[in-house]
């Protein structure tokens, strides 16, 4: 073959043709080697793709760590950084990226928020009594999880790993009218891969399965409602809703775009659900996502929740999935009747940052309704009384309760136009508990604001 090529070159005139024929010769010489090298080429290509993917993940993690370090340094300079001796979880990239302060959330997104939590708390969990690094004592799982703290955030969180179910203990049967609230933090590597789904389920657990072992074997129940979060990138997140009875679908809606979800990555966001018989309404960070009149199988009393995390291709240290501040409450608070006719209204729905008089934006729905009641009854004067749980110093709790009552007065006056002269304030600290301060539910009940008609 080489001799033939040389003879051809001898007869051809012109450099362009010579170059063309030389290139052709090289291709011809390479053809016999292709079958031998094919596997090697594909192996190198696969390795190259893998290397590039890992590089993107590393770059994303580095950016997250850099951002977290900058935030931490800023907090130390302001005198708010934690000391090295404070309780912290195992250090991972995903934990460090959750560094945004809860107080910095945009309250404007709650300006149309009309969620009002149920009147009586039946279950609450913030994992405050669980040990860092251990699985929550009262919960069950088919895989693993651990209680952690997050940089820049207060309280403790349940870190959830993929391919797992995280099931609460049984609670009092939920009535026809109830509310559910919880906070989540999601962190992802932003590498273009598919992320695990989170499937929040309300279901009925029989009395003979209090430990949940039967449920973890087949995940069956008499009936359930499931909300599926599908995280994505660049506005590609979505959500869907379904309900089931005896293993059969009763309701399934189409996948719905949830563009804002990925804008919440790396910081807490609040989820609120309000069920009234078959009707289900849902808000994320104050914005209404669902209002569907017939979706909940109302004749099945739910008494348990399951947060399932589906399988994922990421390593555990590449993503962070966290859950906390869970609260179930039953009943519909008749604010107008209780305040105007009965002379007293008490709510656990006005929330504050920890050890602070700063009102959380998810309190907007309660304050808005209260403002409406007071505007409709312009001659009514009210005393606002703050109460705390027993955590911390008694004298500081007394001062905190007074400051929180004053903050509520200011919000009603400034944001809802209620004449400040109609509002008096006081605080009782931890001196008048309505439940024991030994459980998360008891503490949640004791952290309340009371409105007394004068």
- The 3D shape can be described as globular
Q: Describe the main β-sheet briefly.
A: 8 strands, antiparallel
Q: Report the C-alpha radius of gyration, rounded.
A: 29 Å
Distance between the termini: 108 Å
What letter string, H or E per element, gives the SSE order?
HHHEEEEEEEHEEEEEEEEEHEHEHEHE
What is the architecture of the largest domain at the second tier of CATH?
Answer: Sandwich
Compute the number of structural domains: 3
Low-confidence stretches: 1-104
CATH level 1 class label of the largest domain? Mainly Beta
Mean pLDDT: 81
3D structure, described in words:
The protein has 454 residues and is of the alpha+beta class. The chain folds into three domains: 2-66, no CATH class; 93-330, Sandwich (Jelly Rolls); 335-453, 2-Layer Sandwich (60s Ribosomal Protein L30, Chain: A), CATH 3.30.1330.60. 30% of the residues lie in helices and 26% in strands. Strands 1, 3, 4, 6, 12, 13, 14 and 16 form an eight-stranded antiparallel β-sheet that branches. Strands 2, 5, 7, 8, 9, 10, 11 and 15 form an eight-stranded antiparallel β-sheet that branches. Strands 17-20-18-19 form a four-stranded mixed β-sheet. Helix 6 crosses helix 7. Residues 53-78 have a biased composition (Basic and acidic residues). It is found in: Cell outer membrane. Residues 1-37 form the signal peptide. Keywords: Cell outer membrane, Membrane, Signal. Its main location: membrane.
